[in-house]
Every structure is written in C-alpha cells, then in structure tokens.
Amino acid sequence: MRTLADIHEEYDFLEGDERYRLLIELGRELEEMPDALKTDATLVRGCSAQVWVYPTGDASKLHFMADSNAAITKGIVALVISAVQDKPAAEVAQMDVAAALAPFDLRNQLSSNRTQGVPNMIALVREHATRIAED
C-alpha cells in the first residue's frame, strides 16, 4: 500500500476527474477482503455506500482490511487506511487522522454523500487502536 504522503503528492498534481480516477485506483489496490468478513459487525455505520473495515494485527503493528461496494468510496477508504496501516496501535490511537487527510480537501473535492462516513471510519479505526493499545 502506498504511503499517504506519496498519494498526496500525486493527488495534488491532478485535477478534477483525474483525482476521481486516482481514488478509484487506490480502491482497487486495497488488499482483498474475504466476503466472510463483510458482516454487520464490520460494517461502518453512516456511510452512503456499504463500507466494511476489519482490523487485524497487534499492538506493535495494526493492519486493516477494508472494502466498499462503491468505487470512489472504496478509494476514500483506502486513503483512511493508508494513514494508519501497519503503525503501532498507540500511535494510531493518538493520531489525528482527520488532520492527516486534510491536505486532500475531500469535503470540497467530493460530494457530501461520499464523505459523510469518513468520521465514522476514522472513529472505528481509532477505537480499535485504543482497545489494542490498552491491552
């Protein structure tokens, strides 16, 4: 998975529809999430599309699998995941993921329907990291 900095460098260079294509490409690059993990327990609430996030790993290295049934939303999920992927749980628990995503200016680049679930995705990731870090 690409780093958030690498993605931003490319994203910043692009405009309009090219940014959408990049998001779709990022979504396609996500690790395959088995259908068996796409359950009500892994479903992110508040998203206009269906989004699933499944945490794995341990306190030293969190890892997430994610998927969505909508291409652009899946790209947004990939952005969120790239901000936290394979980092220590304590770091992710303290991280301001929204600030890390701020340079992408998603609220002004995409419709509110596409970004409305982002805070819920971030909350789910941070809650899992906090729980793992405290164990």
Count of individual domains: 1
Question: At the first level of CATH, what is the class?
Answer: Alpha Beta
Low-confidence stretches: none
What form results from the Cα inertia axes? Answer: globular
- Secondary-structure element string: HHEEHHHHHH
Contiguous helical run count: 8
* CATH topology heading: Sufe protein. Chain: A
Cα-to-Cα separation, first versus last residue: 27 Å
* Chain-averaged pLDDT: 91
Binned strand content: 5-15%
Question: Layout of helices and strands, plus pairs?
Answer:
Blueprint: H1 4-13, H2 16-29, E1 51-58, E2 61-68, H3 71-84, H4 89-94, H5 97-101, H6 106-109, H7 112-115, H8 118-134
Antiparallel strand pairs: 1-2
Helix pairs in contact: 2-3, 3-8
Report on this model:
This protein has a single domain, classed as Sufe protein. Chain: A, CATH 3.90.1010. The chain is mostly helical and 135 residues long. It is globular, with a radius of gyration of 14 Å. A two-stranded antiparallel ribbon has the order 1-2. The model has no long low-confidence stretch (mean pLDDT 91). It is built from eight helices and two strands. The two termini are 27 Å apart. This is Fe-S metabolism protein SufE. It holds the Pfam family SufE. Belongs to the SufE family.
